[in-house]
């Protein structure tokens, strides 16, 4: 199981696979302890590479988050995400062949289409304290990266759609095709310059068992 959280410039986004999005760099905490980010990680991100940080969270926090994700999925709180493949009919968009069990589902912190908070930030569902510990750590990470990478737009107060973290689960046989999460502003036309923020850093926290 893995979680998929991601960052935008002043906004931020979080499988039996749970994982995050990316522009140029994925910061991937694997099992998950202290927040001190090694200079080598900063250098890798600055160079446009993929930085891997083992044990970013303690094993106990990872275990609690994994259990929380499983329980919330079993309780029907996840939303099916059509970006993933449909098992054997991967790439098909024929709804009659759609099989949710083979697709990607998410438990979002924010639902843009409805402009409301999602179940990830609910104070009444599941292990609230474990998810809060994670979001607090990610907020601190954002502050540290804003300073270390000289990207002040990363360090903004939390607000609507500012934290696009989510649990993400891939069903058996599902896959997510290679894609680009964020294009350069010039490639978006007028829309590219209509908002003050864009995704700058993306990250993944895998919550899978150690032997997955």
Short description:
Helices cover 21% and strands 12% of the residues. With 212 residues, it is α/β, with parallel strands linked by helices.
Approximate strand percentage: 5-15%
Shape: globular
Low-confidence stretches: 1-34, 84-88
Distance between the amino and carboxyl termini: 8 Å
Oligomer: single chain
Q: Total number of helical segments?
A: 3
Number of separate structural domains: 1
Biggest sheet descriptor:
3 strands, parallel
Lateral arrangement of strands in the main beta sheet: 2-1-8
Q: Averaged pLDDT, please?
A: 72
Indicate the radius of gyration in whole angstroms.
17 Å
Number of strands: 8
Q: Structural class of the secondary elements?
A: alpha/beta
| Helix/strand order, N-terminal first | EHEHEEEEHEE
Helix content: 10-25%
Task: Write up what this structure looks like.
- Helix 2 packs across helix 3 (128-148).
- This protein has a three-stranded parallel beta sheet with strand order 2-1-8, with helices on one face. Strands 3-4-7 form a three-stranded antiparallel beta sheet, covered by helices on one side.
- The protein has helices at 39-46, 59-74, 128-148, and strands at 26-29, 51-53, 79-81, 104-108, 110-111, 116-117, 166-170, 202-203.
- Mean pLDDT is 72; it is low at 1-34 and 84-88.
- The protein is an alpha/beta fold.
- It has one domain.
- Helices cover 21% and strands 12% of the residues.
- It is built from three helices and eight strands.
Strands, helices and their partners?
Layout: E1 26-29, H1 39-46, E2 51-53, H2 59-74, E3 79-81, E4 104-108, E5 110-111, E6 116-117, H3 128-148, E7 166-170, E8 202-203
Parallel strand pairs: 1-2, 1-8
Antiparallel strand pairs: 3-4, 4-7, 5-6
Helix pairs in contact: 2-3
């Amino acid at each position: 199981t893995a979680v998929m959280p991601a960052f935008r410039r002043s906004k931020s986004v979080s499988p039996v696979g749970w994982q995050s999005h990316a522009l140029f760099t994925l910061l991937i905490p694997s099992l998950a302890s202290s927040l001190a980010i090694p200079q080598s990680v900063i250098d890798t991100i600055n160079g446009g590479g993929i930085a891997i940080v083992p044990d970013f969270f303690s094993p106990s926090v990872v275990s609690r988050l994994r259990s929380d994700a499983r329980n919330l999925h079993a309780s029907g709180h996840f939303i099916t995400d059509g970006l993933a493949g449909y098992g054997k009919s991967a790439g098909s968009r024929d709804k009659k062949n759609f099989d949710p069990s083979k697709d990607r589902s998410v438990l979002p912190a924010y639902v843009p289409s409805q402009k409301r908070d999602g179940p990830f930030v609910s104070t009444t569902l599941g292990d609230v304290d474990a998810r809060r510990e994670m979001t607090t750590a990610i907020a601190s990470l954002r502050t540290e990266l804003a300073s270390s990478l000289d990207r002040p737009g990363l360090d903004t107060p939390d607000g609507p759609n500012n934290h696009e973290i989510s649990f993400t689960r891939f069903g058996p046989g599902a896959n997510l095709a290679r894609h680009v999460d964020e294009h350069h502003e010039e490639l978006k036309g007028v829309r590219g310059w209509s908002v003050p923020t864009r995704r700058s850093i993306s990250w993944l926290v895998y919550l899978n068992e150690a032997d997955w």
